[in-house]
TrEMBL record:
Keywords: Hydrolase. It comes from the Eukaryota. This is AB hydrolase-1 domain-containing protein. Belongs to the peptidase S33 family. InterPro entries: AB_hydrolase_1, AB_hydrolase_fold, Serine_prot/Carboxylest_S33. GO terms for molecular function: phospholipase activity. It holds the Pfam family Abhydrolase_6. GO terms for biological process: lipid biosynthetic process; response to cold. Residues 48-308 form the AB hydrolase-1 domain.
Amino acid sequence: MALVDERRAPSRDVAKPPGVLAYDLVQGALVRWSSTVDKSLPDPPTAVLLHGILGCRKNWGSFARRLAKAFPTWQFLLVDLRCHGDSASMKKRGPHTVSSTALDVLKLVAQLRLTPRVLIGHSFGGKVALSMVEQAAKPLARPVRVWVLDATPGKVRPGGNKEDHPAELISFLSTLPKEVSSKRDVVEALIREGFSMDVAQWVVTNLRPTESPGSPTSFSWAFDLEGIAEMYQSYEENNLWEIVEDVPGGVHVNFLKAERSLHRWALEDIQRIRAAEELAADEGGAVEMHVLEDAGHWVHADNPDGLFKILSSSFQMLK
């Protein structure tokens, strides 16, 4: 566990509980809370931020700190999902699916004695957030606002020609050595294979120096690629339309489509979400569709200002 305090004060000495998932907790300046210290303190409102396939919790770091500065009574839980980042060393029993990944996160928030008010998931993480709502009434608060960033509840539609396909990326990475001598060599190999420079540079952020005293510096992957391949297959196959079209009372599901998304949103997806908006309003829940202008699939990198403006409504409404 790492505790990131927005006040820049020295980190509190917080005991690490038995590992469920690796995480960071980014706290606003007015938060006075710890899962292991004074239990009499009321829980601050908490948002959970979930990354996509081949990502890690650090993808959300700067954005979470910006949110914590703007909303100082909130705290933000950034999670490394199973098979990713620092959670990759915590060997998880299969199957590696959207559902099992969501259950991991539910176990973590229960262990930390948190009741999240907001769930934000990018791509694969968006389906994980929906699965969390599907699986458990608790420890999720009511009301709870769910943000599914550039993902739909059902069929995954990769982009067209010249757009990076996650399954192809995973397949190519599996052909590379488990240890490499240079990040630049990996970037060049990815570009030769037809992947974009942006994706190539992002992927190598998952390379970590290998500790081998007296040997030249080498790097190894900070993820379990076999597990990730299984997770991505589940992401493509998993259908969560039911939770959207019969959204529980007190749950507000928000879909955000990137204007220049790598993932094509079919007209039928948009129409189905629009229909769910009307149905949810009659049943005590809510479904809403948003569009983030001037952004591709990597919404928090392409247009962080626009994303911040759209997401801010959740933290203003839930205080």
